Amino acid sequence: MKLPFASMLLLKIFLLSILSITTNGRINSKLHFEICPKTKNPEKCLEILAANRNTRLASTLHGLGLGSLAMAKVRSRLTAEDFKHSTVQTDLTKVKPKDMAIYKECQQNYEVATKKLRGAYTAWIAKKYPVARNGIEFARKMRIPCEKALAGASQNFDNDELKRGDHLTDINTDIALVIANEIEGNKK
């Protein structure tokens, strides 16, 4: 025996699932378009925020900042790992000691920056935005020597990949810093 409401129930479930899919993919463009023009790279900012589910769906500056800080933490950690792997996987007989020192220092800088970003993330959750902002600013300062050093280092390492990681970390921390400044500005 076929129940008459069974097909109606299936239709409702199907429509609800489609509705769920379309609303979950929606970008909070108003929030993104408020923040991204204030960053150093607005186009990349929009691309990064749209690519991550947490930032794409964020409806508040707090949520957007939390998502962007999470991405900055991950990117910083990955860049530290990239520096570590590049020094391990390279033929060390072809590397100048000065260049090896640069890469090891950058790895250490990124490890410190990652710890600072973890602290900033914890502070952000607790809505201690000035503490979070200080951690983000410190992390940004840790990568500046690496950006300069990579420009002058020899090509024995995969400089393009390391520069890309360094650049993405810069963009991610810039987004988080802009959001932190925006939140603090809104409180004044």
Question: What's this model, at a glance?
Answer:
This protein has helices at 4-24, 29-35, 42-51, 53-56, 61-88, 97-125, 129-152, 159-187. The chain is built from 8 helices and no strands.
Q: Mind explaining what this structure looks like?
A:
- The protein has 188 residues and is mostly helical.
- Helices cover 81% and strands 0% of the residues.
- The protein contains eight helices and no strands.
- The protein has helices at residues 4-24, 29-35, 42-51, 53-56, 61-88, 97-125, 129-152, 159-187.
The helicity comes to over 70%
| Tally of strands | 0
Note the total helix count.
Answer: 8
Structural class: mainly alpha
Order of helices and strands: HHHHHHHH
* Unreliable segments of 5+ consecutive residues: 15-25
Give the overall average pLDDT: 80
Largest sheet: none
Q: Report the end-to-end length measured between terminal Cα atoms.
A: 68 Å
| Morphology call | elongated
Alpha carbon gyration radius = 21 Å
Provide the β-strand percentage band. Answer: under 5%
**Quaternary structure annotation:** single chain
Q: Keywords, please?
A:
single chain; 188 residues; mainly alpha; 8 helices
